[in-house]
Each structure stands twice: as structure tokens, then as C-alpha cells.
Design a protein that fits this description.
The longest helix is centred in the first third of the chain and has 22 residues. The chain has 27 helices and 27 strands. Helix 21 links the parallel strand 16 and strand 17. It is about 35% helix and about 20% strand. It is globular. By secondary structure, it is of the alpha/beta class. The chain folds into five domains: about 250 residues, Thiamin diphosphate (ThDP)-binding fold, Pyr/PP domains (Rossmann fold, 3-Layer(aba) Sandwich); about 150 residues, Rossmann fold; about 160 residues, Rossmann fold; about 60 residues, Alpha-Beta Plaits (2-Layer Sandwich), CATH 3.30.70; about 50 residues, no CATH class. The strands form six sheets. A seven-stranded mixed beta sheet has the order 3-2-4-5-7-6-12, with helices on both faces.
Amino acid sequence: MAQLAAISLDDKYTLEEGRVYLTGIQALVRLPLMQRQLDARAGLNTAGCISGYRGSPLGGLDQQLWRAKKFLTRQQIEFQAGVNEDLAATVVWGSQQVNMYKDAKYDGVFGMWYGKGPGVDRSGDVFKHANYAGTSKHGGVLVLAGDDHSCKSSTLPHQTEYAFIDAQIPVLNPSGVQDILDFGIHGWAMSRYSGCWVAMKTIAETVESSAAVDVAPDRITPIIPDNFDMPEGGLHIRWPDTPKDQEHRLMKYKLYAALAYARANKLNKTVIDSPNARLGIITTGKAYLDVMQAFDDLGISEADAAKIGIRVLKVGMSWPLNRDDVREFAMGLEEIIVVEEKRAVMENQVKEQLYNWREDVRPTVIGKFDEKGEWILPSMDELTPARIAVVLAQRIKRFYDSPKIHERIDWLEQKEREIAEPRPDVARIPWFCPGCPHNSSTKVPEGSRAMAGIGCHYMVNWMDRSTETFTHMGGEGVTWIGQAPFTNTKHVFQNLGDGTYYHSGSLAVRAAVAAGVNITYKILFNDAVAMTGGQPVDGPLTVPQITRQMADEGVKRIIVLSDEPDKYPVASHFADGVDIRHRDELDNTQKELREIEGVTILIFDQTCAAEKRRRRKRKLMVDPPKRVFINDLVCEGCGDCGEKSNCLAVVPVETEFGRKRAIDQSACNKDFSCLNGFCPSFVTIEGGSLRKPEAAAKSGNAGDAVFASLPRPALPDITEPWSVLITGVGGTGVVTIGALLGMAAHIEGKGIVGLDMAGLAQKGGAVVSH
């Protein structure tokens, strides 16, 4: 009980030493607090600047930063969410310019940028400019890049290393939550020393995992290299500074200073070695953990590895790869296998660094392909420990063979064959939430088609809504400019979320106006960035404001549809000529707009259903005293109510008279679109409320009565590691169960690692918690 009392949920941000249990996202929030603490101990009065734009696997980082505001503010750390990714990067660039002027309030400002892989792509210009310019002496910049290797919640799989290589930004690749903290501190120290912006790669398997980690202040003590000759004037940002001077400083000194720092601080570590090493494995990030799992699957312990002649290098900085580390590692080896996710980054560097070195040290280097050109560790999708184990076993057989390895390989191959066997093709497809505005707003009239964009409405692509193709964030509708002159189709609709409109989509509308094409933008004003968890749009945005902006841009006609058209006050300041109608007029309104030449706007104003639910629970929004029920004795089970509403709260129910329909009252968000059409089985109740279940016991503790008859469970032996897999559907508490188990283990002083694979969980998709 004393230990339990000593643990608080705030430990993840307040505990200055010891072990804390936190997720990778929360570790990223803790990082600037740790940096501020380290600076204070070093006698520096620094501040922090954080900006970026949300996107999985960093979709919830801004929410966690907002929740931790009181901790951040105390430590002079400012978080300003970016309007989009490249503007956020420009904010962070500005933080490094503070100490060029005498009026600076702090010794330096350390910066942090975050963004999804596509956000890295769109920020290439500012990354190059800012990295060439450099960082301040006591500032530094850490760039958090969220990669979705297997396209679990993205429109494309992506890998950011090559974008950072193009911008000449060093890349750190953590393999878990502890690495996120350690590499984050090293990242800022490296940035200060070298003048480079420093990137840190994050993927779902690392940043959406959780673990009990060590937060001792002296765990990481950055070592300043003593063997690097700094140029006159140093490596930091300055003014005036010509582009050629910046290039010279970056290419000749800054990248090599980063390499010297990585070498001095042993960011690349030999984690397994052998006195007679013959086979080397170089790996990084998640792939490192997969290699360790592959060894476990093959029954190879560290002692076995030493006997076999295996050496393993865990790389912390995957680009640029330190040449001296690679060459030391290669000594005595006959073969090196490079195991890394997606396209080869380290493999090409290893080959280059060994090619013109010593003729007596020429190990064979393989990775994505073997000597015969076989694709053994593919760049597509993601690597699995099973695939890695099979490749390693085949290579190990050249040096060592044993019945145990053959048994393990046979077992792995049998499991792979089982997985490959035909199975019922059943998937839990994400869908719009019950009562989602998109259930209505994404419909188009017969004879028309629409195009999708980024946001929840992207999911309409797998629904029967005459919506085909999509584009990147901010390009909505611009593809039509390239189609319109070459097709007999006269008009299309383009869905555009309000968050995307504010991010960059307004420029797409401007492009369509400039091109003079016939298109209707349906701006889906949902009052939240719902796809990533219900964040507010990153700035002031109202329906009247959009109408004025679009009218001034030259849009021909603007109509507003709403589920509550009477809610706008008289002095709302809409643009001249704007009509406001009920959403029930959607079909006729769209038919009207598609006949108008030029660009037209339909603003569909209805609050996100998930946000309504949250606000009603918090008493921030009126909960209508009305509910809908279906009388199953009258219902004929035709399903028209589900067809009209597209709502997941309309569910099938089996009765003695066959399959009927019912309203799932726990899921219903009171959109009432299921009432459209004529059906005598529907009943609406006004002023009533759901009956609460009767207490399990009239007196005493009801819980005792419920559980009194249950036998005590037989507890498993957990002296050895124990794995738990929890599966389910978004919104049912799968992640919560994992978090409870993790915290329980932490309270008992046990080691714990968790991983939540959520994807589009909040849209009713599949969720898995390890």
C-alpha cells in the first residue's frame, strides 16, 4: 500500500529520478522537461519552443502537450500548434534566431518540431534553409518524424530518412521508449555541438508503445568530442551569412561534427560479440528488436551467438553512418547482413565505407538482396521477426549448424504456411461514427461523382457514395484542373474538411478559381479535427468567415447547409448572397450548384458526432431530451433506416419473427437521420431518459454481491516474461485494459513493455494491445 501511495499519474512529468511508466508519446512530452532540467543543472537559463502538426503515429502528441501545459509552462516551454507542418518548422527556425539579438531573455531556446511523414515531405524547403542556417549555441533542434511503414492509418506507406538525407539532417533511430528519452537528449546535445538540426524517427511500434523506463538525470551525460577541429567562428547560426558560407560550413564541418559526437557518445553499440566473429549483423530501430526476437525464435542465446561467431551492431544514428564504427565492426568478419526497415539506408553506406578501405577486410555485404539478387529482406510493407529468422538461419548455416535451429526453422515455416492458408476474408472496416455528419454530407446526386481528400471523410472511398480517388492534404480539387479540359464530364464535387481547409486547402480553392473549372467544394465544417482525436482547428475559423473569404476569392455561389439552420444570429456577417438551408435540402442544393459554371461552395455545418458526445458528457453542450426506438413487432427488417442514415447505431437484432432493426442506445449520438423516410416502427420519446440498471443488492456493497460467488482465479507464474494479447474494436476499452495491466505491473516493480496498434480505432476499426 505504501508503494501504491507513492505512485502518481503525474510521475511521468514530475519524477526527477527513478523509474516511471509512460508511453512513447508521453516520453516526447517529458523530453523538453528533462532538457530544461539538465540545462538548469549546468547553470543555463534556457527555454523551449515546440511546434508541429498532428498525424499518426504522432496524432495525439499535441493533446498530450496541452494536457501537460502546467508542467511545461513552469519550465519556460512554449507549445504553439502549427497551422501546417512547414509553417511550424519555420516557427522552430525562428527560435534559433533569438540569441542573434541582444534583447534575448534566455541563454538559448531549444526547439522541437513534430509531424507525420507527409508533413516531412512538405517541409523540405524550410528544413533545408533552417539546417543550412544552423542552430544556436544553447538551443538546438530536434525533429520528430512519424512514419507509417505499413500504411495502417495513411494514404501511402512512407519512410522519412531519404527526405532528411536530402536536407542533410542527421537521423536518430530509437528502438523503444527508453531510446526515445536517451536519443532525444543526445539529439539536442548533438544539434548544439554541430549546428545541425537532428531528426528522430518514430513509428507506431516505438512511439505508441509503453514501458517502465529509467529517468535518472545522470543517465545521459553528453560527451563533447575532444578530437574535432572547429572552424573559425564556430558552427552556429549567425547574421549576415551567405548561402555559400552556409553550404561550406555544413558540408565540411557540421555533418562531421555530428559524426564525431555520435562516435564520442557511442550511439552505435556492439551489443553482441564473439572472440571469433565471422558473421556480422548491422541493424537499427524496430529492426533491432526484430533481430533479437529472431534470435529468440531460433533458440540462440548470447552464449550461443558467441560460439557461432556472431557480432551485432545496434545503430543509433542511421545517417550519416559513422565510418570508423563500421570499419571496427567489420574487422575479421566474412559476411555482414544489414537488417533495416523499408528502403536501404545503412546498407549503401556500409558498402561505400568498406569498398576502398583494406583489401584484407572485404566481408560480403547483403541486405535487401543477397548475392544472387534474391529479394530476401524486402523494402515493401514491414519486416517480421519470422522472416528475419529464416534469413538469419540460412546465413548462419554457412558457419554453424544444429538440430535445434532446424527444428525452430521448421516450426516458423509451418506457422508461415498456416498464416498463408485461405481464410474467410472478414475485416473490421472502419466507418463513420454513429451520427457522423459525413453520413449525410458525403452523398452526391445521381449522375454526379465526388473526389475525396484527407480527413475522416476519406473513408467514403470504401462506401457506396460515388466517391473515387483522393489527393494529398491541401491538393483537394486541384486534380480536376488537370482533368477538366480532357473529359466530357462537366462538373465534380470535392470533399474538403474544415481542418484541411485551414491547413492548406484554401489555396486549392484559389487554384480552382484561377483555372476557371466547374467544381463544387463541399467544405465539411465539423468543428474539430476528428481524424486524430478531436483537436480544435489551429486558429479562428467560423462558417461566416469562410463565406467571406471564399466570396473575396471569386467563388460564384455559396450555400450553407446545417442541421440547425436557425442557430445563426442575425449579426453573423455572412458574405452577401449566401443562402442558409436545412441539411435535408442537400440533394436539391447539389443539383442546383452543379449547373453553375465556375467554382461554387457548399458548406455543410454539423458538429462532429464524437465531439458532441464528449461535450455533452462535460456539460458543454445541450443533450437533446429525445431518443429514438424501433418497435421490433412493427419493424419488417427492410434495413431502409440504415440505408438512409448510414449509421452504425442502427443494428440488426434477431427475434422469433426474424431479423429486425434496433437502435443501439449506448452508441446513438442523436443525429436522427434514421427517421428520414416513412416507417411506422419508429418511436420517438421526448423528455424521457434511459432506465438505469437495478442495483445488484438493495443494501451493502453491490460489488460484493456480484463477485461473492466467483472462484478466485488461478494466477499464472510470472517469474518469467508473460505476454498478453488483447483484441477488440475501437471504443471498447482495449487500450485502457493494456494501460491498466501496465500500470499494475509498474506498481509491483516489474518490467513492462506495451504496444497499442490502434490505426483507425476511433472509427470502429480493429484494435490490438500487446
